[in-house]
Amino acid sequence: MHYTERIKPDKNLNLQDNLDFVKDLEEKNKIVLGYFEALFLLACKSFLESEYDYYICEAGIGGKLDTTSIIQSKNVVLTNIGKDHQDLLGYTDQEVLNQKIFISKNIENLFVGDINSELINIIKNNYPHSKVKYFLRDTVETLNMNLKDLMANQKNFLLALSTVSSLLNIDILNESISLNFEEIEGRFEIVNQNPVKIIDGAHNVDGVKHLFKDYERQYDFQQTDIFIGFKKGKDIESIISFINSQGKYKIYFIEEQTFYDQENPVVYLDYFQKAKFEYEVVSLDAFSSNKNPSILLGSLYLIGEFKKKEISMKTFFMIKPDGVQRNLIGQIISRVEAKGFNITKIKMMIISKELAEEHYGEHKDKPFFNDLVSFITSGPVVAMQVEGNDVVLQIRNLMGATNPSESTPGSIRGDLATELDKNVVHGSDSDESAERELSLFFGN
User: Fold this and answer.
1) What is the pLDDT of residue 312?
2) Does the annotation mark 203 as catalytic?
3) How far apart are CA 9 and CA 402, in angstroms?
4) CA 102, CA 69: separation in Å to the nearest integer?
5) Rounded to an integer, what distance in angstroms lies between the CA atom of residue 11 and that of residue 355?
6) Closest C-alpha among 133, 166, 157, 147 to residue 213
7) Could you give the C-alpha distances from 326 to 333, 335, 414, in angstroms and in order?
């Protein structure tokens, strides 16, 4: 999983230079950082060198042993107590709580999500290192909602809103009532409607139970296909036993070596045979092409691999002001469609100065930055989301070289453009750029 998928600033950060710093640190000290440790160090250094006011950091395992505990944050959000990493955190809910709540020794504001009443009372009556305590249950009651009616992503959304409201001392919480809760993103993510396809990072029994509860609250299918893949060390037997007991789910294992540190299902062959459990091993593409309602669940690395495949099927493509002014829209779109690609989103718009500066943010220190912004805001553009196999590279090839004089005949720029400054079209140059630009222009 690429680091840009895990570090998400709302403005450009100098991540590449700081990544080089992390690599140099490893070489000089002759150490090898784990993926999470390297990611955390990269994010911390980038934040400290930026002009950002807030740094939201998600813990790994949580608790005293978590890498993020070095921050000793004054503001801590405890979303839930689950049975994960039990060899490190403990085997009872209170043992896990004792670990997680000491991720910082001096908490000014503790925000607590959906946990049971017994644990809430323990938190209220103990842990003096946590000064002010906020509970999701109180927030939900204030909004005249019922906690039992909310899905996991909706609970986390309200917890995040109440946290921001309290820390910034602004009332954005009541505005949430007017939002469409069904559209709130989370680990339970609907990636296709017909047939229904859902991806979820549930990787322990509690997480899977929550997933199925939320799923069955929304859908009532007679059978759903479950595609699963877990990292090594997970309690796969308990998870499979639970899914199998539900009676209306068919299980497919994602073939080995699909993602980092994946457990090979063959390891559990004896268990499957004794339980008379039937399963198939398939590729990740089988989930994408499946025609039945289906869920992809398990390791976040698995979810990341799926998202990378999906991202590589989409790109951002734009006809610039000169192309629009010269009435080339029809010609250019015809070339894209003749190549076999689908234009799934399209709009004509005038780009604001703010959007242009963010779009060209990587060039902000270059002498030509102002000219780029001035030109792209000079008239209407046509922005598109284009989909198809290997679409990023193929659209770049279809466009031709940035300098029209170097573009081959038959390409858009080779046939239709004459000037470097007015080269008719723009297309994302990588999967990461496509994701960022589609988000900027379409809110993907």
Assistant:
1) 66
2) no
3) 28
4) 8
5) 11
6) 147
7) 14, 16, 16
